C-alpha cells in the first residue's frame, strides 16, 4: 500500500511490469523529464521509500543505483540523495587526433577493471602497493612482461626486462643512458613526435634517413651512419605511427645487420605488434645485443595503463638504463603495474586486447568504405594516414576540419627533418561511439572532396 501523502512521482508497482527496481528507476526518469522532480530535490531515504512502496530495501537500493548510472541522482553523504543537475556535454569536437585504443568489442571494461583491482587488493600487500620500488618492477611484474612478449620472442628470462611508466619514459631513459649532448639519433623522415621532443629536451640531434613504402632504406642508413656517426637509430617498425607502414622481415634483417656492422644501437619502439595481422619478427630477434625493444600496454589495452616493458639483454646496460630512468621517473606506479600483471597472468589482458583488435578492424573497414580511395591503412592498428589532394595542404586542412568540429593531426607534427609529406593522420579509437565516428569520417570525406576556395570559416 502506498501512503496517501506519498510524492506524486512514486510509481504504482505492477506485478507484470518488469523488475521492480527498473520500474522505480523509470518513474524517476519520467519525473525528471516532466519536471515533477527538479535538480536539487531531495529523495526519500531508502527505508522510507521501501515502506511507502511495500518493497524490500534491496529493490530500492538497486533502483537508486540504476538511477545514478543514468546520471539522475547524486549522493551527498549524510544529507541524503538528491536529483542531479543535467549532465552537460562541454565539447562537441570529434577527436580524430589522439591515438588511443577503441573501446573493446564484446568486453565489459568496467567489470574487468573492478575484478582486476579486487584481485590485486586481495592478493597483494597493500603497503607494498604504496611504497617505492627501485628495481625496474617486481619479480612478478617482470614475469608478466615475459609472458606479454612471448608471442614476439618465445620464452624470455624475466631478468632481462625492465618495467617502465610508459614508452615515452623508456625512450627518454634510453636517450639519456646511451647518448651524450650533441650526439645524433637517426629516424625516419616521418616519425613519432615523442622522440623529437625528448631528444630536443636533452640536446641531441635527430636526423632523418630516407624511407620508402617498406620503411627506412638500408643503403641510406649505411650512408647516414658513415656520415653522422650516430649513437642510436629509432624505429617504429610495425604499423608505424603515423604512416601505418610495417617493415617487412627481409628489411628488418638488413637494418639489424647494419646496426651490428656499425656498432650502433636500435631503439625498437613497437607498441602495435600485437594488434597487427601476422607481423614479422621484431628486429631485436635478428640483433639481440644491438636492439632495445619497447612494448607498451597503453596503445593496445588502455591509455591509463602506463606500463611498458623494455627488453635489454646486457645486465650492465640495464643498470645504466635504470639509473637514467630514475633521474626523472623513479618507477612505474606499483598499483598500476600490479593491475597490468594481474591482467596479463589471469588472461584478462589477452581478452581485452582481442576486443580492441576486433573493434579496431571494424573501424578500419568503416574508414575504408567512407574514405574510399583516400584510405591508406593496413586494416588494423589505431590510425589511418591520408595523403591529401594537391588543392589542400595539411595545415590548411587541419584548420578547416577544426572549424567543422573535427580534430586531425597534420603531417608536420611528425616531421623529423625540415620537410614533410602532404598528409594527415586520423585516429580511429578516441571517439567512443561508433556512429559518431562514422559521422565524423563522413564529414571529413566531404571536406576532403571540396576545394579550400569553397570553404569559408565563421568570423566571430
TrEMBL record:
SUPFAM superfamilies on file = PLP-dependent transferases, Winged helix' DNA-binding domain
Q: Does the keyword Zinc-finger apply?
A: no
Q: Which UniProt keywords apply?
A: Aminotransferase, DNA-binding, Pyridoxal phosphate, Transcription, Transcription regulation, Transferase
Residues of the HTH gntR-type domain: 18-86
Q: Name one GO molecular function term.
A: transaminase activity
InterPro entries, sorted: Aminotransferase_I/II_large, HTH_trans_reg/aminotransferase, PyrdxlP-dep_Trfase, PyrdxlP-dep_Trfase_major, Tscrpt_reg_HTH_GntR, WH-like_DNA-bd_sf, WH_DNA-bd_sf
The answer to whether UniProt assigns keyword Repeat to this entry is: no
Which family is this sequence assigned to?
A: In the C-terminal section; belongs to the class-I pyridoxal-phosphate-dependent aminotransferase family.
Protein name in the entry: PLP-dependent aminotransferase family protein
Lineage at the top is:
Bacteria, Pseudomonadati, Pseudomonadota, Betaproteobacteria, Burkholderiales
